[in-house]
Amino acid sequence: MWNRTGRVVAVGAAAVVVLAAASLVPSAAWGAEPPLPASPHPARQLPNGLLPAWPQLADHLVVDGTAGGPLHGTLVVVNRGDRPIDLTTRCRPKYGVVLGNATYSPHVVFPATCDTRPLVIPPGTTRLEVRISTTYLMCTRSAPTPSMPPCNGSGPPPLPAGRYRTVLQGSGLALPQPRSVVVSGPR
């Protein structure tokens, strides 16, 4: 079983890929002041497709579920400020969470579509639900590599048992990198 504290828990092979939709805040809820823009430094790209976040934003990842099937998680974002923050730049940012370790460092490839609906984080706590896959992100029918194993009959195989850490990835997402959740498989 996965726990809510970020401590090591035992599960079968697990990779985490997350793409999620967030609830929107209607413009009437913004009050007199418009939301802050996505990032205080939008031209500065950080690792994993993230942008610098406003200092009043904090986040953490909660992962729930059992081995052998999709996991469910929540990216909990806290806006300690008094104004909403619109994380949308030109397009609504996409985001995902992956699990990696010393031998496997996947990168989410996001669709090149542009959704112009705003992704607004109001003051207080916002929960972004995420679905978590427990397989490799990609596979091949030709020459396999450590990060791209051979496909099984239904697509990418499950990750082998072992220790993995969560990493938030995005496409211009202005959130802080949450502390990793460590996931461990049976020995």
Report the strand count: 8
Number of domains: 1
| H/E topology pattern | EEEEEEEE
Cα gyration radius (Å): 17 Å
State the helicity in percent bands: under 10%
- How big a fraction of the residues is strand? 25-35%
Mean pLDDT figure: 81
Question: Pairing-aware structural class of the strands and helices?
Answer: mainly beta
Query: Tell me about the biggest sheet?
Result: 3 strands, antiparallel
Number of helices: 0
Shape: elongated
Biggest sheet strand line-up: 1-2-6
- Distance between the amino and carboxyl termini: 15 Å
Show unreliable segments. Answer: 1-27
Topology:
Blueprint: E1 57-64, E2 71-79, E3 85-86, E4 95-100, E5 120-121, E6 124-132, E7 163-170, E8 182-184
Antiparallel strand pairs: 1-2, 2-6, 3-5, 4-7, 7-8
